[in-house]
Amino acid sequence: MSEDKRKNDIAEGQDDGATKESRRDFLKKLGVAAAATTVAPAATAKAASIAEHLQTHFEMMSDSQKEKAIARLEKRYSEQFEKQVTVANTPAPDGVLFGYALNISKCIGCRRCVEACVRENNQSRGEEDTRHLPIQWIRVLEMTRGNDTFQLENWHKGSPSSSPIGDYGVQSGGHADKAVGISGHAEHYYYPEQVPEENSFYFPVQCQQCEDPACVRACPVRATFRDPNGIVVIDYNWCIGCRMCQLACPYWARRFNWGEPILPNEDMNPKTHYLGNRPRMRGVMEKCTFCLQRVRDGRYPACVEACPVGARKFGNLLDPESEIRKILANKKVFRFKEDFNTEPKFFYYMD
Amino acid sequence: MTTTTQPASVFQKSIAFSRDFCMYTVKGGKVYYSWLLFLSFFVLVGLVTTFIQMTTGLVVTGASDQIVWELFVSNFIHCPSIASAAVLVVTPAYIYKRKDMKQLAVIGEAIAMVFVIIGLTFIIFHMGRPDRSWHAIPLIGIFNFPSSVLTYDIIVLNVYLVLNAVAVFYYLYKHYVGQPLNTTFYTPLIWFAVAWGPFIHIITAFILSSNAQIAVWHSALMPFSFLAMAAAAGPGLVIVTLLVIRKFTKLEVQDSVIDFFSQVIIWGVGLLILMFAVEFFTELYPATHHAAPLEYAINGHNGMNPYGPWFWSIMTIFVVQFFLLCIKKVRKSYNFMLPLLCISVFLSVLFEKPSVLIFPAFSPTPLGEYAIYRPTLIEICNILFIWAGGFILLTMVLKGVVGVLVGDVQDSSVAVEGGAK
Ligand code: SF4
Ligand code: SF4
């Protein structure tokens, strides 16, 4: 995609949807931007980083501490990315439990959602030929239709037959030789000319916003926690980078910043939220937050908007009239890896 | 009141003790200095690579989103093994009241203390943001108690460190000033430390087996096999240490002590082999997807077989070691075969961690990928840096301990019955 197109996309992304910012917030941000231009960048960066090191867990900060922390960040990001960056602290709306539903019979594996997510959420773009890999929160698995471990030419071999040790009724050959337990194969590194590929279906995976999240349980410092809307979030400034959560998550949904994230100024989305898409630092965990910066403002996540076939649905699970509730009531719905008992609020369905 | 002011002199004496202790640890013969110099080489290199890692991030290690633990963790897991083995030195001395080991118990505690420190250093290197370690300190940070297993590990390790450090230095100080131990304080402390020892390893095992995602670690046997490894590798190090001490210092170490520990190693290695066998059977016979990582470790996957050779050599080495140790002549070869075997037990348990236990377990990933771990040079230099630093610390602490035990480090007022200065 050309740079111009990308910029337009960002602009579009910011303009649609209602942005409910109070006037006070707006004025405050203007003030910050003015201040940012008057102070020597290096000095502020250093002071900000010391203050950031000393700050406590976001949930434990007083309102004034939060305000200061946010002002500090806005100033620092604005200097770093050479544009006016806002860091919102929009609170969780009342009476809302966010849920997601994905129609796997519609998904065509085009990965527009992945691209939109990367752009919206300021993920590291990575560098080619280095170990700085790009960070992507959504993985789209490509799978073969039918059962690809069953091979017709082998169907008759899987019964007691002769084996190297003789004819002792030992089950060998055919499907008896399959690698343990793993049936089927999923690929998330596919690069076809055209999607959907014949004989394939697609299965996107991202953070499932579990009700009983293994990641929250494992985090030794509560850097990751559930917000009141049921979204699991991370305080990037509190995470110690121990990666216990990454190990615990059964959905491979968490991404670690192994090195300094690579986020070119022109690619940076300046409209951010403290617990959402603000630029991360090296050595911390990140993951999908259902675009917390958008949904707390009553907008759709970027992936929902980007999906060209409308496979992605999002809404309030507590509202009986919502689309998502209708889907749960009427479609063939399942959750991924239910045996892990993490109770995802991310549902898959088929028509 | 007389002019010999006792309360003040305790403080002065502990200052004097620390000074004498430190002075003694930096003095030594040619062998001593060359050993330290040899280790310092790795420290020097490690300083540079540590700087690179700390300023660039963990991207300089071989870890990835597929295999999220690096060599640091696999080495870390070895440290509680050795540290909890202090129990095996202290128990016979204090609980079974073996006379020949009474004096040596403090050596076991010193080893435990140093290995907890080495282990914690590995964790610091493993953390993406070591500068934020304070977030995990109670009161100023937040503890995810009682949910997170890692918080338990932080607690047990630190408590064990404190217990041992207090026990070691209290014992040495009392020896230094020539006073008898206050048993109402010291004995419960020792008993507590003995009870605590296995904990550090059990909890470390829980860090692994608490992860639902990694099926092959879902084993109730894991803490026990860890303890078996502790019983094998710990005494291995203790024997080598005691043999070195016996050779180079005046401290008397009887053959009976060495023989006791070589017996422990036989049991340790034997139990370990049994547990491996049990575990492999339980995984491989039903051959559900729980067995996939183990299959990968043994046979590889689709022609990719990075761990197989390691697996087979380590398993073979364990068996060979076991049978060699069963031979009495080998166990009695104090100057050649026994130390060699001890070092090999130590190393095989150390190398089992990354190549059998940890790295293969990460494949397949939750989304079905198979990956290979490739340690980087910087990572290896950092590992060597931590080990070298740890062994420098161990050498110096043990030198001091022996100095106190044989009376080279002593309060002058004890030698010349003159009272406090
Ligand atoms: S999917 Fe993984 S990261 Fe997301 S809430 Fe569940 S356990 Fe946590
Ligand atoms: S990496 Fe961060 S969020 Fe994850 S468990 Fe560790 S401290 Fe918590």
Topology summary:
The complex is a heterodimer of chains A (351) and B (421).
Chain A: H1 3-15, H2 23-38, H3 41-54, H4 63-81, E1 86-88, E2 98-103, H5 112-120, E3 139-144, E4 186-187, E5 200-205, H6 214-218, E6 224-226, E7 232-234, H7 244-248, E8 255-256, E9 271-273, E10 285-286, H8 292-295, H9 302-306, E11 312-316, H10 323-330, E12 332-334, E13 346-350
Parallel strand pairs in A: 1-9, 2-13
Antiparallel strand pairs in A: 2-11, 3-4, 3-5, 6-7, 8-10, 12-13
Chain B: H1 6-26, H2 30-56, H3 71-84, H4 86-95, H5 105-126, H6 149-177, H7 183-209, H8 222-248, H9 255-284, H10 292-299, H11 308-326, H12 328-331, H13 337-358, H14 377-406, H15 412-415
Helix pairs in contact in B: 1-14, 2-14, 3-5, 3-7, 3-8, 3-13, 4-5, 4-7, 5-6, 5-14, 6-7, 7-8, 8-9, 8-13, 9-11, 10-11, 11-13
Bound molecules: iron/sulfur cluster (2 copies).
One iron/sulfur cluster is lined by residues 218-219, 221, 223-224, 234, 239-245, 285 of chain A.
What does this structure look like?
The complex is a heterodimer of chains A (351) and B (421). Chain A is an alpha+beta fold and 351 residues long. Chain A is built from ten helices and 13 strands. Helix content of chain B is 70%, strand content 0%. In chain B, helix 1 crosses helix 14 and helix 3 packs antiparallel against helix 5. At the A-B interface, helix 6, helix 7 and strand 8 of A face helix 6 of B. The site of one iron/sulfur cluster (SF4) has 14 residues of chain A, from helix 7.
